[in-house]
Amino acid sequence: MALHDRLESHKALTTAWGKLIPEKEAYKYATRQLAAFCANLFQVMRILEPDFNKRTEAICEISYSLNMSVSGEEYMNEFYDAWNIPEFCEKSAWLGAIFGDYGDEAEDMAGRVIQFTKDRVEKELDTCPWDIVGAELCNMTTAMFTANFDLANGGENDVSLNMCEARGCGDRHCRVVAERRSTFNLPKQGFLDHMQQPVMPVHNTPEERTVSEGQILRNGQYSNAFGEEHSLEYDYRWLCEFGWAWCVAFPLVVIRDMAEDEDEFLRIFRIVFSTAGKNLFMEPFAREGLRSWLGAPRTIGDNDPRLMGGYIMAVLDSQLVPYELDAFTKDEVRINVTADDFNGRFEMAPMDELAIGYEALWHNAVKTLVSAEWSCWFEGIDEEDMTIVIGRKIDKHMI
Amino acid sequence: MLFKEDEAARAEAMAVRNNAAWYRWTHDLVDVEGPDADKFVDYLFVNNIAKAAVGKSKYTTMLNEDGKIIDDVIVMHMGENHYWISTLYAPQFLKWAAAHDEGFDVTCRDVTAEWDMVAIQGPNSLELVDAVLDEPVDELKRFSVVDRRIGGADVKVHRAGFTGEMGFEFYIPTEYTADVEALLASEGTERDMPELQILEVYVRSIPVEKGFALRQDMYGLTPFECDLGWSVCMDKDFVGKEALERAMERGPEKKLVGLRFERPSTEDISQTEIVYRKGVPCGIVRTAIYGYTVDDNIGFAVIDAKKAIPGERVTVGMNDSPAVICDKVFV
């Protein structure tokens, strides 16, 4: 088929230099961007609370509570219809597995439902973009699953739920198994009890039949066992809204409380994101790789702020954040964006920390990507209309 | 997902094939009533529904204006100008009916919450059915409905099923479901007729072996592309008829076929996995499941009609899983 006939059928974002990045690649990039922000946030948590169990229990508890509060009974009833869940499927405890399966695939956590019975559900993942974050997040997801099961059951569930393998812990697969407590004679679990082995043996998919991408990347859409289908476009939007909620907004609530006060939290938060930013382009091949990815020509020199501007534009585009380019010269880059768009990815839980975190990240990234003469800051960071600026700045207290 | 080694699933499947078993099989149920109910169901569905006598039922598909399947249902003729429609998608059906009921004096009501349904399936199912009913149903013909009692419950007994075996369905007022299930459990245990626990065994594995597809497998195809031409009555008016006539002239573009997979299991194959012939996409998988009667990994796929040739070798998914196109009836 001639290119002309395909022009309308494939979507892509355009870099500052006109290179097209296909929608699938942008989506995949966005999943890892979210995971990286989450990984930085969890470093903040580890500084504030050195005890693994205490911090893990804290984020589990808050994630459980918030998941319960954002997904009420009405939400679940609509969910049953919207997802074509048939009446013969008991709406007691196991529907949580259906929602969990969709959430996995929407975020490119590629895998399969191994078993789905009245008394046992087993879900296996071969990939997880969030596998860089650490074991606390793996634990936290079990608390969210518990909330899903409780919601589906209309109250406390009858489920023993274990993430018996986790890529964030170094395992080859992630594996969550839910077994009915009354059937298998199992005790009710606390938040830190969800990483145990299940009663029944698991099915371990051989390496030659694992998959490296989720359904929407492999097949262009997600389809569940009951025939509900979601497009890449739908899942991409879901990722860029709810993805921020579960892995950043939920844990942020409690991580903030681990600090003595707001100033202490923000001090450590900025330091962690600054460090991450400094390391982003430290390697010379990282800079060259970025140039290639963006299609940046050699006329954009090594000390040109437009390289950083083009990078930020690609990040915003891939995260589906609308913006307006106000200036793009060798002296200055200015990108206008509203706080609603930048911080309010998940409308119910806007986060000022997104602007604060990215300001720290990008201010330091520009120093290794371009040079130390350049800084990045958000004008009007506390206001509705913000401008991301890349410009020259001299500061005798520069960090 | 089912595996060859799953002895629990195998035992459930074999119970249906060799003896009998029972399970909750509640579908959404829509009650259609009114002076124009006959005309209305005939207008919505491709089969000649109104010709079914009271007490009889018919399988049929429902098409959109493009002549493509949007649902497949069982329609039961419950009385004069009174029908029950058994579907998995009552909310969507009601919207569709409301959009097409202009000029028809008819009322459609979702009665799903009022009726549970239990399926009793297998060559010996009549024995269990008769054991719990007040009167036997030995003479009940296939696709027929009669009234009976189970304990204090007035139930409808429908001789039908989704297993390809002799079978019955009990429609039970929901307040009596627990009583009926307890009785079936008790009588079933005495006869080694278990309650099935594994959804995929009775929703997928057993039906796929017999070539029974779900709506999702056929969605967007014409009935002719799914070998359901026998159910289409072109001598009456129905939604999608004009488009279907044009489609008949053009011939099928796609075809719902069977696939036999040639690997020990199918963990890397989802419901919409891409099928390749000589490395070129030619369709998508609709289901992949283990069949315990055929002892093989089997499934359905929608393939470009010209390439839907029985015996043709294809590969599926990112790991090039080999498979062979075949008839969609495996046993």
Q: Which quaternary structure do these chains form?
A: heterodimer
User: Can you identify the CATH class of the domain at 20-191 and 221-248 in chain B?
Assistant: Alpha Beta
Portion in strands of chain A: 15-25%
Shape, principal axes of CA atoms of chain A: globular
* Total strand segments of chain A: 12
Query: Which spans of chain A have pLDDT < 50 for at least 5 consecutive residues?
Result: none
Number of helices of chain B: 8
Largest interface by Cβ-Cβ < 8 Å: A-B, 36 and 37 residues
Spatial arrangement of strands, main beta sheet of chain B: 11-14-13-12-15-16
Whole-angstrom Rg of chain A: 22 Å
Overall outline of chain B: flat
What order do the helices and strands come in, and which of them pair?
The complex is a heterodimer of chains A (399) and B (331).
Chain A: H1 3-6, E1 12-14, E2 20-22, H2 23-48, H3 52-70, H4 73-82, H5 95-106, E3 111-116, E4 120-125, H6 135-153, E5 159-165, E6 174-180, H7 181-184, H8 215-219, E7 221-223, E8 229-231, H9 232-258, H10 262-280, H11 284-294, H12 305-318, E9 324-328, E10 333-338, H13 339-343, H14 352-369, E11 374-379, E12 385-392
Antiparallel strand pairs in A: 1-2, 3-4, 4-6, 5-6, 7-8, 9-10, 10-12, 11-12
Chain B: H1 7-18, E1 21-24, E2 28-33, H2 37-44, E3 57-63, E4 69-79, E5 82-87, H3 90-99, E6 107-110, E7 115-121, H4 125-132, E8 145-150, E9 153-158, E10 167-173, H5 177-190, H6 199-209, H7 215-218, H8 241-250, E11 254-261, E12 274-277, E13 280-291, E14 296-304, E15 313-316, E16 321-326
Antiparallel strand pairs in B: 1-7, 2-5, 2-6, 3-4, 4-5, 7-10, 8-9, 9-10, 11-14, 11-16, 12-13, 12-15, 13-14, 15-16
Helix pairs in contact in B: 1-6, 4-5
